[in-house]
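Quick bug: PadR family transcriptional regulator output formatted oddly.
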Amino acid sequence: MKVENTQVQMRKGILEFCILEIIARGEVYASDMLEELTAARMIVVEGTLYPLLTRLKNAGLLDYTWKESTSGPPRKYYTLTPTGQEFLHELRLTWEEVSDSIRIIRQKPHANGSAPPQA
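Here's what came back:
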């Protein structure tokens, strides 16, 4: 078993949450999302992002508007719907619960009484 496979699965599991967080700040173009995700070391390609955006749109969490571009064809800018805002709120609560659970598990002393290794 390779650690890289588990790392990829962990990132995939939180990708939707990260995308919604980015869009929650205001309307955003998909290429800008890709840049931000890449800068945050969330390795994503267009072939992953666009189907996910479509799925979120079809679920009623996102909306988009077309805007003219000075450097080519019109661009699609995404925003959260009210349903998307509530969905993100619930994901944030879940993230806090999971983070707290992991912290509790990682901080528990080993069976021999020693502290867990620091990472």
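Actually, after a second look the formatting is fine. The CA atoms of residues 35 and 100 lie 29 Å apart. Closing.
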